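Hi R.,

Here's the chain you asked about this morning:
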Amino acid sequence: MSILKSNNLKDSLSSLNVKSIKENNFTLKEELLKASETGLINSRVDSNLALTPKLIINDYSKGSKVLNEIIYELNKCEEFFISVAFITNSGILPLLETLKTLNKKGIKGKILTTDYLNFSEPKALKKLLEFSNIEVRVYNKENFHTKGYIFKHSNHYKLIVGSSNLTQTALTKNKEWNLKVSSLEEGLLTENVVCEFNTLWNDANDLTLDWINTYENIYRKQLEYTKKTTIPSIAQYKLRPNKMQVAAIESLNKLRESGEHKGLLISATGTGKTYLSAFELRNYNPKKALFVVHREQIARQALESYKNVFGDTKSMGILSGNSKDLNKEIIFSTIQTLSKDKILNSFSNDEFDYIIIDEVHKAGANTYQKIVNYFNPDFLLGMTATPERSDDFDIFKMFNYNIAYEIRLKQALEEDLLCPFHYFAISDITVDGAQLNEKSDFKFLVAHERINYIIDKINFYGYCGDRVKGLVFCSNKNEAITLSNIFNSRGYNTVALTGDNTQEERNTAIEKLEQDEKNNSLDYIFTVDIFNEGVDIPSVNQVVMLRPTESSIVFIQQLGRGLRKNKSKEYVVIIDFVGNYDKNFLIPIALSGDRTFNKDTLRKYVLEGSRIIPGCSTINFDEISKKKIFESIDVANFNDIKLIKESYKSLKQKLGKIPTLYDFDKYEAIDPLRIFDNKNLGSYHIFLKKYEKDYNVQLNDTEELFIEFISKKLASGKRPHELLLLKSILKNETNLIDNLIVTLKDTYNINFNNITKTNIINILTNEFPTGTGRKTYSKCIFIEKTDNEYVASKEFLSLFKNVFFKDMLYELIDFGLRRYSKNYSNSYKDTCFQLYQKYTYEDVCRLLEWEKGEVALNIGGYKFDKTTKTYPVFINYDKHDGIDDSINYEDKFISESKLIAISKSGRTTSSDDVVQAYNAYKDNVKMYLFVRKNKDDKISKEFYFLGSIRAIGNPNQFIMKNTNKTAVEIEYQLLTPVRSDIYEYITY
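And the predicted structure, written out as tokens:
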């Protein structure tokens, strides 16, 4: 079942939609009643998830945020009404892309707010006035504290009422309770809510710029008064390490207890490395300590942080070109000064108990090595946000591969260590009909229309605070300099900084950017790469990316320039101009931190990133940038050997040894399945044999074939059966099948029958694969029958003489069983499938326990197996253009619980497969739905498992476009409605 672009079918679907959604309120009424029963009476009743009453909370770990529910409903409604007491700019920002889209569609809305407590931000109110489709009114008669969102559809309403105002924290992070209900227009609840809104609306005044200007004076006075009278929290009186800092200190203690004298701390920019080191030093209590930095400004900032932790319990001083404090208990020194022979030799080799090197990824330089080789401290701590280097220096080796603790971006956001960011990926402009890419002429980068476009967007998305303090990352020096000059001619105050500028020039520019006074300040610094790391500009409130993303590391470095917390900003705005770049797929990789290189995971993150990113941060892509990133993901080859080699090299460098399969998962490196699926590899052993000079394990051809079979067919862990049986063989156990039955029941609560037995036997005797698969692995016979019992085959047992083969087998089995426990063990009803996990055609045949496998061509969209009485339906929801009309089917979700699917070509309503679909329930046939979003994806062949389905209504026969063949339209009811994030992704 796939997509058919047929006028006949589209007309049919359109008429069905009109009939079931617009004209037939009785159907909707029945759905609402069923949904209410699920929500209010019995949670086990299956109904339309989109209509079920539910509690909306903020919990990113569950993919739940109030913000995303509101965005979802805004995108679906025909008109909207919002009544909230408080509106802030941080609350409006994540809605900008949605509001812009609604404006283009002509979807009208009304927003009602108040001046209650003078809390709403004038900046946010002004932004709302920019949208011609939105009316805004202010209610100021008495205390107004409503929080309600009303969404009107053609024949029903959706209501979200609870505790959430239009503020950043209320929509994304706070513990909020909001109830979402659906109702027909005639429902009493809807009548009451709409009536109350209209009453308040009619009593309110239109929002105007004059009113905002008057209100702004009051707002600012209130803000100043609040700052002066803020009651300090208890936390301000006692400076203690946070949870992550405590964990890092404990890890350092364990390192020392094991006899180590070096440790590496990997911590994302802005996560408090300096404070962590101060707490660690307070814990260690050295007689004398050294803190090494590369700039005096950073040394002085570090000293101030240490004073907050130590108070006056330790003496501290600066060692730099301007200061020579040599006899303090804690010395903060610049590398330039300390590396001078006269200064260095004034200290003894064991002068310092404890040495800390900041930005230690620079330690490959001669100056750093000179210091490291000279001193002999009890403990050496290195701190960096970017240990992965493009140069040849191995920072991990320098610290004996002792990673004391690692804090990446996602963890830092979870612990609220960073400033929230609102990321906007927007499509870069087309100049003279050409889309910008890596090879674009310089004249296009600085073209008049591009400058106008950039200025329009940075103004639209804005910044936090009274004035912009922005960093703009450019493609090259000439672009930075030229853009700065043009911006200056347009009334901005900017400067371009490149590697040619002195440190003094950089420091002066940073000071002007950070100052609050407008006079003699800078609005923007245009730069290339010099601010990627090692610079601290806490008050940056807007980061603009005008260059292609060539590295996820550099992307995070540049994003991180705005993530340091600062009292002057509530959030930072990140504006990324996405051109037609080959490596656009690196954007979701960098933002998500996901290194598995799974295409569906990356596509889904583009659409759903805001749901699952911790804290108040949001991720937003405009429609064209989504398309460009999807195209980049589509053509990317994540099984490419170059990518695999780079990822492997990075992990090996980190560990100082050849990684195990478990290491790939533990350190969130590339998914080993990418190695197994590479057509020229097939197993980790072959990869190491080809590309790792330190690997000298030898297997013969037969051993390699068995390892490849397990790697490609079983190690994904889709089910444990075969892996457990192989483990029994390794342990030299007898009664293999009987032991497997007991283990599956006792350990995994999985039942076993004769059909299961036949299926497993066929897989492990090579009777299950079809076509080329059977021929390729003809030697892979794991078990054989003797005396009415299955035992390990003689050939398989003979391979155990090679201890390397046996160890490799253990590793693969353990890897697969871990994958099963982590990803596939929460099975759906009485199946071996887990909802929303992905499976190939071969996986489905195997897990449905068919006697033989089927190639995709034979399945052709669905297949009924008489022995197991199972009937899987496969949907390609998005197919490439140009496909033959006779096989180009269109399947369509009507809602989260209903789907229209098309039969194979040449079928009529009396065809056996169509009749069987409608008789499935009566005949006790189990029908399951598998949906694939991938558009002509040559790598991922997996389908999302969406549970049980049942054919309902009556089949509709029609003639296929440009053919004389018939097909049948079938409506399916999903017994478990599709989870909202998966549904949005598939139907996007």
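Residues 28 and 227 are 53 Å apart (CA to CA).

Let me know if you need anything else.
M.
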